[in-house]
UniProtKB/TrEMBL annotation:
One of its GO terms (cellular component) is cytoplasm. It is found in: Cytoplasm. Coiled coil: none annotated. Residues 4-189 form the YrdC-like domain. This is Threonylcarbamoyl-AMP synthase. It comes from Prolixibacter bellariivorans.
Length: 317
């Protein structure tokens, strides 16, 4: 098959119910025609994703929101105006058009308009809204390059290569409430950013389940991974360890170091985090991946959310 960036072919494959991996500004997505349940089912199979974990639908035109949701709240358009195209996913009541397999049976659907020209062109050329999770195996490190996708999903029908993604971590996910908004997943668009448009709702949640995909372990390398907290004795063999270094203060003795930011910039940490984890995962000289923690404010919340989930299984056992 043609491995070049052939948009016509990629769009045709989407129309035929095949899977196309494509870049967004956050991470690469594994895309299928959102209106074709059989095509969407292939996403779950290839990713080995449990059926209870719902997918996000990607649109290129604000009008599409009217087809996919029953929400008529004008706050949706205020948010879209401010943040789209961009890394904000809105969870809204779904319309009948949205197949249940996408939402894992929930009455709501996650929707976003990605800020990436290749992604937008794929949606427009295929003429279909595109359902896409991150293009990795379930639970593994998210992909920020086409090579990361190829590594985990060699059997995908087609990959559009857009180089390294510019944000590096998944979108912020929010839901609307009477009072304002709640955050279901942190991302590069922070609570403070959204508060410029809507009030944050800090009231207790009454419903029992909101985001079934918010599992404790995720984004995990196949090697041991640990966050270099002050509270854990780092009695690891550093001669076999690779460090994701942010400030430089932990660098002593490590076999390899990747500086995730040149000048203490959290956005750079986000851009380089998954790529650095992939690099160490692929490096035969490295047995353990260590990551420097950051303060859990602003973008730091989204970074620490990923790092905590990546280390979760390893820390416990
Ligand atoms: O940046 C992103 O959001 C990337 C790119 C490809 O757009 N996509 C992504 O998708 O991160 P995924 O499937 O890896 O994560 C989507 C998460 C799910 O795990 C689920 O927790 C949440 O979105 N989600 C989707 N629909 C939802 C819904 N109706 N209610 C609550 N949570 C939902
Ligand atoms: Mg994912």
């Amino acid at each position: 098959m043609d491995r070049q960036n052939n948009m016509e072919l990629a769009a045709q494959l989407i129309q035929e119910g095949k899977l196309v991996a494509f870049p967004t500004e956050t991470v690469y997505g594994l895309g299928a025609n959102a209106l074709d349940p059989m095509a969407v089912a292939k996403i779950f199979l290839l990713k080995e994703r449990p059926s209870f974990d719902p997918l996000i639908i990607h649109i290129a035109d604000l009008e599409d929101i009217k087809k996919l949701t029953t929400e008529e709240d004008e706050r949706v358009y205020q948010l879209a105006e401010r943040f789209w195209p961009g890394s904000l996913t809105l969870v809204l009541p779904k319309s009948k058009l949205v197949p249940d397999i996408i939402t894992s049976g929930l009455p709501t659907v996650g929707i976003r308009m990605p800020a990436n020209e290749i992604a937008l062109e794929l949606i427009r050329t295929s003429g279909r809204p595109i359902a896409a999770p991150s293009a990795n195996k379930f639970g593994r490190i998210s992909p920020t390059t086409a090579a990361h996708v190829r590594k985990q999903l060699p059997d995908v029908d087609y990959i559009l290569d857009g180089g390294k993604t510019t944000v590096g971590i998944e979108s912020t996910i929010i839901e609307l409430t009477e009072k304002g908004f709640r955050i279901l997943r942190n991302g590069i668009i922070t609570k403070e950013d959204i508060e410029e448009v809507l009030p944050f709702d800090d009231s207790e949640k009454t419903e029992s389940i909101v985001a079934p995909g918010m599992v404790k372990s995720h984004y995990s390398p196949v090697k041991k991974m640990i966050v270099a907290d002050e509270d854990i004795p780092l009695d690891i063999d550093k001669s076999k360890a690779g460090l994701l270094s942010f400030t430089g203060k932990y660098e002593n003795g490590y076999r390899k170091i990747i500086r995730v930011s040149e000048n203490n910039d959290l956005k750079e940490y986000a851009v380089n985090m998954f790529d650095a984890m992939h690099t160490f995962e692929d490096d035969n000289e490295i047995d353990i991946i260590v990551a420097e923690p950051v303060a859990e404010t602003g973008i730091g919340k989204a970074i620490m959310d990923r790092l905590r989930k990546a280390e979760y299984n390893w820390r416990r056992g």
